[in-house]
Write a structure and sequence with these properties.
The structure is a homodimer of 458-residue chains. Chain A has helices spanning 42-45, 51-58, 68-74, 86-92, 113-125, 139-151, 161-166, 168-176, 190-198, 206-218, 234-240, 242-253, 270-284, 347-354, 365-378, 387-404, 422-429, 440-447, and strands spanning 6-7, 17-19, 63-65, 82-84, 97-102, 130-135, 154-160, 180-184, 225-227, 261-265, 290-296, 307-310, 321-324, 359-363, 409-414. Chain A is of the alpha/beta class and 458 residues long. In chain A, the strands form four sheets. Chain A has a seven-stranded mixed β-sheet, sandwiched between helices. A four-stranded parallel β-sheet of chain A has the order 8-7-6-9, with helices on both faces. A two-stranded antiparallel sheet of chain A has the order 2-3.
Chain lengths: 458, 458
Amino acid sequence: MRKQTKITLDEKEMPRQWYNIAADLPGTMNPPLGPDGNPIGPEMLAPVFPMNLIEQEVSQERWIDIPEKVLEMLYLWRPTPLVRAYNLEKALGTPARIYYKNESVSPAGSHKPNTAVAQAYYNKEFGIKKLTTETGAGQWGSALAFATSLLGMECKVFMVRVSFDQKPFRKMMMRTWGANCIASPSMETQAGRDILEKYPDTPGSLGIAISEAIEAAVTDKTGQTRYSLGSVLNHVILHQTIIGLETKKQLAKIDEKKVDVVIGCAGGGSNFAGLAFPFVLDKINGAEIDVVAVEPASCPTLTRAPFAYDHGDVAKMTPLMAMHTLGHNFIPPPIHAGGLRYHGISPLISHAVNHDLIRPEAIHQMECYDAAVKFARTEGIIPAPETSHAIASAIREANKAKEEGKEKVIVFNFSGHGLMDLVGYDKFFNGELSDHSLPEEDLAKFTEILKGYPVPTR
Amino acid sequence: MRKQTKITLDEKEMPRQWYNIAADLPGTMNPPLGPDGNPIGPEMLAPVFPMNLIEQEVSQERWIDIPEKVLEMLYLWRPTPLVRAYNLEKALGTPARIYYKNESVSPAGSHKPNTAVAQAYYNKEFGIKKLTTETGAGQWGSALAFATSLLGMECKVFMVRVSFDQKPFRKMMMRTWGANCIASPSMETQAGRDILEKYPDTPGSLGIAISEAIEAAVTDKTGQTRYSLGSVLNHVILHQTIIGLETKKQLAKIDEKKVDVVIGCAGGGSNFAGLAFPFVLDKINGAEIDVVAVEPASCPTLTRAPFAYDHGDVAKMTPLMAMHTLGHNFIPPPIHAGGLRYHGISPLISHAVNHDLIRPEAIHQMECYDAAVKFARTEGIIPAPETSHAIASAIREANKAKEEGKEKVIVFNFSGHGLMDLVGYDKFFNGELSDHSLPEEDLAKFTEILKGYPVPTR
């Protein structure tokens, strides 16, 4: 007879603190640099973020209390279930025990609201009335729209034009939550106008949209507008650690003592780090865990890109950050995992990869769609294209365990459902999708731009 | 300080039996009638349903065990949370305590999988390899596609053409789960061909799609195909009672002793009855509870239609059932709540309404969309258009409690999310929606057809 399928936690069992890995990482992090090449101080970020979030961004405290009001918003869908993937295990014939943390149960359908409600809360506490942000496929924009609607704040979302035109449904979600979503590049910012003048038919990019959103925040004359980012930064990843902290409590609850593999898909890195960092802490303390960050083979930030200082956006409005980066002008191939096409990745993750605490892995999209369909037909939930990368990796590990005849424990982050991304599935079934490798010469071309920048230490 | 927001149950606390209200309803139910006007025997349904489900359909047992294998499938998302709508209460300034049962967390996004997994299971047990069904907006078709994929069965869905064309995403969900979804009327059945010959441009209807799905099942020469219905019938409603049974456990867990109002939206009636019937049992036993079935004012089955014998489908393939019905040729106005446009409603609900155990209420769609947007912006989840009817009614009750200064307890069924129905919201915001009343003369015209049929007793 089966044991428990779905391990739930009561609200009272939800973690009351976030975990800040900055307190535990070995070596020294390379600081963000300003235009003069010197480390930036908190005051330089003040026009962009509220000071309470800047303090979190640079904090070295290991544990940071979650405010009561943030807990109350999280309770709307958290704690999320940890599910034993019995059906998938059976279909694979693996001796591995596979668990997935189901972050798709949030109102916006992904892990993104975990940080959206926290960021909206801290901004409101600081007196901010309006947030600006960018969004690619729309997961982050809709999460922030959801969070600001709960707190009665304004929200303006710059959505990459190609997604704005091709994926109208995320835009409608944002509108339902009261946010104002416009296509990027737009005529509302200098950054947008500059790009449109040069490339009137541009499909847009996340890097451009970030430039526009930052500009819209810092040029607002009321002083009550700030910018909000959905991944990459330290405070974003901090807020996501509730995923891994809950997971550890859930595994303890069913007496699952030893985790062998922890997996998440990685674009900017927040869902991956959210699950993984509490396990990386165990690894730092001596546990043997294979922690896997899975990225698309077509956007190989961790597996092939250099570790370098780079901007987070096209218009170079962000500080220089030390990270694995494909260059801020990188144009990703047209794969469907919109959330995994960013040119850079979290500096914390980059640092942890450099110190062998995380193993990066790149998988092509056809294998990911295969895995996603297998998952949908066994476990029932249709995965987001981003999430399918974690599933594909989990299936690889489960098959490895089968070959080795080992009872491994595999945990992966089911970061979001694919109900807003069904066109990709349709194309997959129609045979219209294929794999895209990034040619060596393109990688060289895109990263050429990094040559003039300061060089971070490993 | 707030009490608990989200009341969860562990798998071990999930009910192990369904509640069959047929054992407790006062008076005598009018039996389904065959073409000869006489009550049909189980054997007459055998070409359509497997015998184990027919036994449930006619059972008078109060409690029916849920098979272990069905429990295992339900565990993928059940027990579902009961949520205290603190934010909505605050926005309304009501002294009422509002709870909603969140059925939207299922993989298909609604309550429909509760019966889909049970029906698929019983069919498989009976040796059936393939199920046929109809679907309007696609909630039911996708739920059955999900269930059959878990059990490795084939599934064919006849989808009302207007939805097939206008709502491609539900169709893609079904495809992802491996089901074959085609537009109805189709050329694959006699019923479909007849309609297409007369009305080549017909948008289709649920009544036509049911005819096609039944025909496809009973004419299959292998004998291994059966038909599956997502609402109306006794066994479907039986499977949905897990909603109300869980809700009662959850209310007991937080010591909420007395429920004043129980609300669900009602099309065929399954989500409403699923929540309400366990509370109707209390009412039969003397408790004072206002049990409200909410329907669209444009499709006023319970509030304005006669109680009569009628077919469930256009081609009159189903037995005659005693129910409130707008006539099987009813053509509903173009409102967005696709799941609430059926001409009839569950005979069990009709009977309970006739015995004053349930209070029917009709609400127009603009009030429902208003309520849905208010809910989305306070509680976070974007409701299905069907579900918005229950929300609108709950808001009415909460406002009434405010006027009366009473601390009422209101429980409603959040039957599904609206992520596949965002076009309706967009039209609402664009001012493109309006209310549709069914003119008295149209009601008379559609129900004219019932005149030749046997008359049920009240």
